[in-house]
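ping. complex inputs:
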Amino acid sequence: MTLLAVQLLNGFQLGMLLFLVAAGLTLVFGVMNFVNLAHGVQYMLGAYLGVTCASLAGGFWLGLLLAAMAAGAFGLALEWLIFRHLYARSDLDQVLATFGIIVTLNEAVRLLWGSAPLELPMPDLLSGSFMLMDGLRYPVYRIAITAVGLLVGLALAFLVNRTRAGMLIRAGASNPDMVNALGVDIRRLFRLVFGIGAMLAGFAGVLAAPLVSVEPGMGENVLILAFVVIVIGGIGSIRGAFIAAILVGLVDTVGRTMITDLSHAVLSGQAASRLGPALASMLIYLVMAAVLAWRPAGLFPART
Amino acid sequence: MLKQLLGGLTLSVFAFAAQAQDVKVTVISTLSGPQATLGEQIRDGFNLAVEQLGGKLGGLKATITVVDDELKPDVAVTKIRGLLESTKQDFVIGPVFSVVKAAIFKPVTSAGAYLISPNAGLSTFAGKACSKDLFVTSYQNDQPHSVSGQFATDQGYKKAFIIAPNYQAGRDALTGFKSRYKGEVVSEDYVPLTQMDMQSELAKIASAKPDVVFVFLPGGLGINFVKQYRQAGLTNIPVLSTFTVDESTLPAEGDAAIGFYSGTNWAPNMDNPANKAFVAAFEKKFNYVPGTYAAQAWDTAMLIDSAVKVAGTDHEKLRPALEKADFASVRGSFKFGKNHYPIQDFYLAQVAKRADGKLQTEIRKKVLTADVDTYAAECQM
Amino acid sequence: MKLPLAIFALLALVPILSALGVPLGGFVPLLLGRVMIFAIAAMSLDLILGIGGLASFGHAAPLAIGAYAVAILDAANIHDAVIVVPVAMAAAGFFATATGAVALRTRGVNFIMITLAFAQMIYFAAASLADYGGDDGYTLYSRTTVLGAKLLDGKAFYPTVLVVLFLVWLKLRIIAASRFGRTLSAIRQNRPRAQALGFNAFAVELAAMAIASALCALAGVLLANEAEFVSPAFASWARSGDLMVMVILGGVGSLHGAILGAFAVVMAEEALGRLTQHWPLLFGPSLVLAVLFLRRGIAGIGGRRD
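pong. complex structure:
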């Protein structure tokens, strides 16, 4: 029973990390209708910049701040240089161009930082842990990530639903031409949204760095998971992304264990030890396909 | 398109002009993408040896082509077959990963070249399907894992919790461990290759309270596991591993890895003259601590050097010369079994910090002496 | 009409030249063979993506299904195309029908993601086939024969692939020009109107997916024979991405553009890889530039679309 509770906590925490990445993606996607595959490399870039900034600035916190800002600035530069020319283009053109950026940045990171994985130590302030169950300690750092995820969720919900900028964002999402005609600089609005999205991805990258290996290509796994999250949640919906992120987190921790145990209970020996892990690997995709079969536009579609 | 055709034409003309009196070696390794670290070690280890030999192998000028397999089996096949059809190669060295080896085995050996594998040691080619034209300078894949199994048995650990990624090599690893482990396996877990968070497995370990944990978690998986294992405070349970804490991942794992055990056939601190010279030269040139990948690639170059010295580039005469393995290995003693896989000692190594602050694995105990893999008996050449 | 014929003429030149004794080296036919195999896969994707507007991010799945059909029948000692090809095409067609029925409920990016999800399931399923090597893949005992003739071996391989490519292109052109093809195109352009005219959009799109998938399985059969090897990597999402890149880069909806796209991608890997180990640094930006400046893809360079 304790084990299940611990697993639920783990799933929730993984969900919060996914939410940080997915929130930016769903905003850019929902508001600007822009398919940004390069969102994952923003996350990777955040982690790498975090490692470098932390060692240059001599600490995690300053590193986090600098890296998130640098990632945001880099995102804005990309937006100005390339993406703004693609808003009016088809989904497919956006996919191809941002795919090109993934390829480029993965290799650039390898060239600059080398292909060996890097490490970012945890900040001392949060490096403590407490006894969660017999023999298992839980790092305070993970609690902090969960809290940050919740805070960011609340802040974004406030920004989108309660502020003037948020109102314009929502208006821009449903009818950009009309907003433009009313004298609002839609380009600037888009740039703002894009900057926030890029910064959030970079921020999530730095936060994840002490827990996972910082290596080229680390963005792709997260990108696919983030896409799964926003598709399940309904594109453009912060609330949907939040709930779907928790769902995916839980499926990935609790569900994976359960399906393995279940296959052992139903089948015997060889068959179970093969089928169990295979199903566990597919699980989030099965969940996504099931959700989309049930609700083709996701759980909480922002647009109807 | 015409330009490309012309490009191909000039390429094959160049091939004609190549010297007859040289040794042609192709190194095929994974050099792009996220998995490139290991591939780079192999390339660096091999190049270092050739450089130390004055750009020659066995006294003949060495013409070396480096090919990136991109870790895509079909890409590897096309590249290697194209190369072999335009220029005959005496040796093909590589690859890093088993999946590529299975794919290029046939094209290489049917083109009259020796395939010498400095890392991937598939069981397929160790038994019934062993080949006259294949040599493996690393190990048969099961062996390093069985070292941990043997050690766990020797220590009298009663309950083991074992984890590997959900793919063929992962399943083989756990089978290898179990082949020499006499205690009870309380849980056998397979994680997806792309798993980032190990928290779920850690909670299960804490709840199962095993005497020992065995993991085979290569690359990023291992880095995540090692860091998170320490963060979860599971320090009282010893961790035996293979390819989880090695010189390719230690820089990223940092101090969290200190104390982890690893089953291996070599470590940088191994005490013999060839090895001391190798490690010093390698670190000087490439500025990182070499892992087994680099060491085995270095041995591979020395093996070729010793054989060409005796037999030149005559394919048939080379075989007995290669089988003799008459070179000073960084592993001390080295010889081939009848299936062309090595017969060698295996050790338990432990991660420790050197005087200069860098991390490395260090030999703690010899576990298996002159170990012959279990498939060798089935090999009829 | 001139450009596609020029492409085929150039491709046909290779075996003619080598028959005349021009030393092309082994590399040119090998690489172009590979280009043509991927061109078949990319062209079949173009049917649903270009003409039908259905951006499938899972087209590596039928490719792998075709390849695994070869492997599984190879293990059962069945090597003739008379059995292998229909099995491969039927399996891929069935897969597309079953998954398409679910996927077609969604639109836009959700469609991209759900097709990706189904392809990932094929990937993991293939990786769990321990009898066929699991992740390590499976080396074929023997290549596929055609009525006993070794048409997929040695010198015959290239001409065979060329013929298959030509037939697939012809077939797809006929489909595109047919009533079915024009209905599919009409649904892409204006779905409500097409439905109001009485067309069953769902059925048409599902049929298109099945046809595309079955044709792509042909490429899978050829790819397995070219490599004499099959592995789950054939179904990886990166491979699906490659196919999409080929179609978009070549020029969406033009069919022969997919051949040019396949050529560009395979050659870029090879030629840039020769220049530098860091070839993605050149390849990535050229994709971006292609999107920004080649609006109709490579096939659209220098003139109107034909």
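The interface with chain A takes residues 49, 55, 102-103, 105-110, 112-114, 116-118, 120-121, 124-125, 127-128, 130, 237, 241, 244-245, 248-249, 252, 278-281, 283-288, 290-292 of chain C (CB under 8 Å).
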